[in-house]
Specification:
The chain is an alpha/beta fold and 311 residues long. It has nine helices and twelve strands. Bound molecules: NADPH dihydro-nicotinamide-adenine-dinucleotide phosphate. Keywords: NAD, Oxidoreductase.
Length: 311
């Protein structure tokens, strides 16, 4: 009997995902767009990015929800989430894309690019002697699938790299800290702080006024995780006062960032519209098919999300 994988995303192209996944699945699975499902009772799998409230109620035989991305905060916080396994994407190209963006952000601050861009606008030849990477401390908050790879890349460039997680991890070149109390010491020690924490009840607004106060004067801040992990007013105040020398920000509490928001015009701040990394059909398709086949054969799933932890 044919099973159906239902697809929902307002951002991702259905045909591209369908064709990429279909090459890894047998003909006994049909992939259908959410607005054109032939038989809701045959839907056993859902591949979704931010589906509307009530979406899951339409499919009484759903057995697996696959989040079409890495961040699951909007999915696991829903009241209408069915009590079935949730998996996330963790594809290698997504990891590389994120590590590249984070490395760019760290180098932007390490090589004082905002200073040179400002000087260029005034046609000033404003020499600043470059610092060696080995004299620069970078702290990466969150060492998961994406964060761990980014931290390893930063370390590979020769930066003194520290990381923060809840459990010990072995990452080449990265000094890993996992005590909750370590956070403020790590912030105080860092020239560049990179936020790669998932948004959960435990991390919501964890980078608050006290956290920015703990940071080194002149430190730079990079956020590629979720805007709500940061107390945005405290971030703005830290930038306005000069406590922070600059920031590279890809994510915001409110997206799109409203035109009147103070962050748009602060010196040393680069704003990008939430694109540090995206899921790519060809590289994500094998793991989607793997999990669908695992459900069908009763085998263990990969990349399972803990609803308790929230990531
Ligand atoms: P993972 O879920 O794989 O890992 C999360 C990491 O954060 C783990 O190391 C975890 O620790 C750590 N962590 C979680 N809670 C805490 C806490 N309370 N205190 C200390 N450490 C904590 O995440 P990824 O690395 O795959 O991705 C990170 C985030 O990036 C995603 O959640 C998503 O929000 C964001 N993202 C942004 C994109 C963009 O384009 N800007 C694209 C894709 C993702 P432990 O290892 O001990 O479990």
């Amino acid at each position: 009997m044919t099973d159906i994988l239902v697809f929902y995303s307002m951002l991702d192209p259905f045909e591209e995902w369908r064709d990429a996944i279909a090459t890894h699945l047998g003909t006994e699975i049909r992939i259908e767009r959410a607005d054109a499902v032939s038989d809701p009772s045959r839907v056993r799998f859902a591949l979704v990015w931010n589906p509307p409230t009530g979406f899951f109620d339409k499919f009484p035989n759903l057995e697996l929800v696959i989040n079409l991305g890495a961040g699951v905060d909007r999915l696991v916080s829903r009241a209408d989430l069915p009590d079935i396994p949730i998996t996330r994407l963790s594809d290698p190209e997504m990891g590389k894309m994120m590590a590249g963006f984070v490395l760019f952000s760290v180098l932007r601050h390490a090589r004082e690019i905002p200073h040179f861009e400002a000087a260029q606008r005034n046609k000033q030849w404003s020499y600043r002697h470059p610092r060696s990477a080995s004299d620069i401390n970078v702290t990466v908050l969150g060492l998961g699938e994406l964060g761990g790879l980014a931290a390893t890349e930063i370390a590979r460039q020769g930066f003194r790299t520290h990381g923060w997680a809840t459990r010990p991890r072995d990452l080449p070149g990265v000094e890993v800290h996992y005590e909750n109390a370590a956070l403020h010491d790590l912030l105080a020690n860092a020239d560049i702080v990179v936020c790669m924490l998932p948004l959960t009840p435990a991390t919501s607004k964890c980078l608050d006024a006290a956290a920015f106060a703990a940071m080194k004067p002149g430190a730079a801040f990079v956020n590629v995780s979720r805007g709500e992990v940061v107390e945005e007013r405290a971030l703005v105040a830290a930038l306005q006062s000069g406590k922070l020398s600059g920031a590279t920000l890809d994510v915001f509490a409110s997206e799109p960032l409203p035109p009147e928001h103070a962050l748009w015009t602060l010196p040393g701040v680069l704003i990008t519209p939430h694109l540090a990394s995206v899921a790519l059909p060809k590289s994500a398709a094998p793991q989607i098919a793997f999990n669908i086949n695992a459900v069908r054969s009763g085998a263990p799933l990969a990349n399972v999300v803990s609803k308790l932890r929230g990531y």
